[in-house]
Amino acid sequence: MAQDRGVTPRSENYSQWYLDVISHGDLIDDSPVRGCKVLKPHGYAIWEAMQRDLDDRFKATGHVNAYFPLFIPMSFLSREAEHVEGFAKECALVTHHRLRASADGGVEPDPASQLEEPLVIRPTSETMIWHMYGRWIDSWRDLPILVNQWANVVRWEMKTRPFLRTAEFLWQEGHTAHATRAEAEEETSRMLDVYASFAEEVLAIPVLRGRKSARERFAGAVETYTIEAMMQNGWALQAGTSHFLGQNFARAFDVTFQSEAGERELVWATSWGVSTRLVGAVVMTHSDDEGLVLPPALAPVQVVIIPVYKNKDRETVMAAVDALHAQLEGRVRVRVDDRDNLRPGAKYYEWEHKGVPLRLEVGPRDVKRGAAFAKRRTGGDKFAIPFEGAVERVEEILAEVQQALLETARRRLDERTYAAESWDDFVRLIEEQPGFYQIPWGGDDADEDRVKDATKATLRCYPLKQPPIEGLTCPLTGKPAREWAIFARAY
Amino acid sequence: MAQDRGVTPRSENYSQWYLDVISHGDLIDDSPVRGCKVLKPHGYAIWEAMQRDLDDRFKATGHVNAYFPLFIPMSFLSREAEHVEGFAKECALVTHHRLRASADGGVEPDPASQLEEPLVIRPTSETMIWHMYGRWIDSWRDLPILVNQWANVVRWEMKTRPFLRTAEFLWQEGHTAHATRAEAEEETSRMLDVYASFAEEVLAIPVLRGRKSARERFAGAVETYTIEAMMQNGWALQAGTSHFLGQNFARAFDVTFQSEAGERELVWATSWGVSTRLVGAVVMTHSDDEGLVLPPALAPVQVVIIPVYKNKDRETVMAAVDALHAQLEGRVRVRVDDRDNLRPGAKYYEWEHKGVPLRLEVGPRDVKRGAAFAKRRTGGDKFAIPFEGAVERVEEILAEVQQALLETARRRLDERTYAAESWDDFVRLIEEQPGFYQIPWGGDDADEDRVKDATKATLRCYPLKQPPIEGLTCPLTGKPAREWAIFARAY
Question: Which chain B residues have a beta carbon less than 8 Å from that of A93?
Fold first, then answer.
């Protein structure tokens, strides 16, 4: 079992550390289908917590959920010129709809069941949804449409990494339709803010808001906005994107509306999404060499109570445990681990590796002094929490831990955002001290490719907050600087 | 637009009535992919409400959620002998993983990307999950596993009907693993009870609990238990199933555990599921010739408040509406319809067709007398609800409506459960007065087929509550009666 060896230290092998944290945390497992993973209960519970919180935020900003088909007619993918380049490549294709018995006693596709037009498993749903919006939109009265979908999508990936890159993954995709450009732009920006607040308030991940370069833009978008997070190794992780699609999809699917003035106009569009890769972002932002660390606001179990007793003390201890549980329940997400086939030490080990923020031990001596023995997942000595008023104290501690995780991550982001003076400087630094490099950028697409080829760093975004740049020269290209840009290696 | 013609009365054409209710209720739309529908926001919101309630019930009975891959290796489907018969037929097959540009400027599957082994889009996940359980289960300490999955599944269907039968649909599938037969049987029965309580308490659909005949059993199950509901036309609708799978899947996927006594034993299994077809069941149980009727416990919007005013009264009316809204919010699911591009009449029409249980109109005269003008979706005259104490009165009304819907449905189920004296009697009656026919059944599989061929009625279940049967003769076969069975035409 994985538990037999410890977690590989970050300093030794960061990639292996990530895999170990996930495996010890019991988050995910390999499946017999290449590129597809199984989200185990604890991993899925983290995604569920994200879903619940995000869904509330989407609804609070006027959105409703809907569900569109998994299958997209193949021809749809070639309707929007740039979209086809970006998505009509590595995708799963359904070509038959029936199995028949084969000579060897197994089954095989029935050739008679070949589809006239293959179906693509959605890699994203713009094409299907804009086809449908064409049926739903006729007048300005039908606008805006503010729809979100929770769904699975598939992008055939050769090299996978748990949560960060898998063939099938879970996500949400918002797709909105508007009467005016301004309204669609406002929506794009609103949803970027929703993602950023969610990341900071719930995931305790500070993010940089920015605009993508043309090279890194969503295929079919006019502008792609992003929130970029920094992992502990200084690499960037794109944590969410919000796209202003202009009228590209309306044009491709012929979606027009009659304006209040009586004119036929093309509809304006946005789309925005986050996925299960956010679980990977949480793992890589907060975990340590002991394993998973979950921010309290996200943790499916915030507090675990572990009774510690010999048989004669069972009743006394369990009475205190039950009372403590009753006091906490409803206010915090609490679990009592009363399994009697595991020793306390094994339980501590398991819950630590599952990233539970706070552990409360209750033994006969604790009952006597009227306090639980507490241990934060994030370190420090054990300390007593009196049963009386425990819930307030626990809430306080969870809030402190949440705040501390955010601050640590924010400090990392600040401290590891660097400058580079020249091409050579950058090439050396990005290797020696990975981080975000804030560059007064003057390059073009070809320059961007050159940086990527030489350093594996990409232009993560043009930060929305731009310091003054007039008169500066781009250190990487020697050209006049046009806009501040962040370069980093990225997942 | 669909709104231009009314809903077809049930008495005129029941099938068309069903389609009209769904279309006027704005629940679903056709998609460009044959057999796949789009769940529009109002239709999806009903499914979301079901999900939320069921998920709570699953968790309260000790289950956790997880997520398994969409794709199943083709060979898995032939591992369990009966399962292959039932599921390895009409299913979507992925054979390629890349598109390339085609000569005509479109795209086509790249022949070089053909998969070595085709992948099946899951029609149900027993095979994948039992493959994984084989990795997770080693000792009695690993049991039970109580996992549920919310997912989309695909069964290629030629004849579809919105919600009731579509190629892709949404569902939940529980898959549990146990150390003993007794424990697995207990789980099967527990989940049937969960479904039955949910149907009665939330959907206001009374159900008959029963056991399926061998002919109607889930492919791979030892026993399938079902909850059967009766639609307004007397047809049956299988609303949920819970399967005792014995050791069939453990055997097929070689899943054993070391028992406390130190023996290697095969694991015992259950699976259980309900799907978006429950939305169809709700539609067909409660709706009337005016359109959709939703039970309050399920309705995404329970109360709609509609301000009615001329411009000069706007402020007065909206102040009262806002206060009423504030009073109701948090206690009931309330929506204010303050769209100013629609007349009140059009709003009444829309919300009635969306099945909202209670409408509150507030105009200047209502403000003056301090009461809203109320209308139940289920009929009766308009009546006043004083603003003071409105929330208690509204909660009372919603509870009454919920109860009344359940009672009406229960009366229908009771009144339309019939007996038949002979084969000829049954053949005539099932046509003239469709309903549930409770038969002291003595037939075999071939007899069951004969009944189906002659009458389109199927053996829905052997009710769990069995009246005495000793000495009776089966009226359909003339054989000695073995067990009471319900026959009906079914969706």
Answer: 94-99, 109
- Tell me the C-alpha distance between B219 and B89, whole Å: 12
Please indicate if any CB of chain B lies within 8 Å of the CB of A119: yes
Beta-sheet pairing, A114-121 with B93-96: unpaired
HSE, CB side, 13 Å, CA atoms: give it for residue B205: 32
The model carries a pTM of: 0.96
- Report whether pLDDT(B265) > 70: yes
A59 near B CB under 8 A: no
Interface-testing mutation among B68, B127, B166, B333, with chain A (most A C-beta atoms within 10 A): B68
- Cα–Cα distance between A403 and A391 in angstroms, integer? 18
Here the ipTM equals 0.96
Nearest CA distance, A40 vs chain B (angstrom): 5
A90 contacts chain B (CB < 8 A): yes
Asked if residues B377 and B398 have their Cβ atoms less than 8 Å apart, the reply is no
What is the CATH architecture assignment of A2-92+121-286? 2-Layer Sandwich (3.30)
Is CATH 3.30.200.20 what the domain over B2-286 is classified as, yes or no?
Answer: no
Confidence of residue A4 (pLDDT cuts 50, 70, 90): low
Domain with CATH 3.30.110.30 in chain B: 417-488
Task: Identify the closest residue of chain B to A136 by CA–CA distance.
Answer: B29
The two beta strands, A436-441 and A483-488, are: antiparallel
The fold adopted by the segment(s) A303-413 is Rossmann fold (3.40.50)
Residue of A nearest to B41 (CA): A66
Query: Are the CB atoms for B55 and B325 separated by under 8 Å?
Result: no
CB contact under 8 A, A92 and B97: yes
Answer yes or no: are the C-beta atoms of B166 and B152 closer than 8 Å. no
* Overall CATH class of domain A417-488: alpha beta
Closest by Cα among B231, B223, B227 to B194: B227
Q: Which among A194, A206, A195 is positioned nearest to A405, based on CA atoms?
A: A206
| E-only strand ranges, B401-491 | 417-418, 436-441, 458-463, 483-488
Q: Count CB neighbours of A320 within 10 A.
A: 22
Mean pLDDT score, B116-141: 97
Q: Which fold has domain B303-398?
A: Rossmann fold (3.40.50)
Which structure tokens are listed for B280?
Answer: 């169809």
Cβ contact A165:A37 at 8 Å: no
Distances (CA, A) of A336 to A301, A308, A360, A374: 10, 11, 9, 14
Confidence of residue B4 (pLDDT cuts 50, 70, 90): low
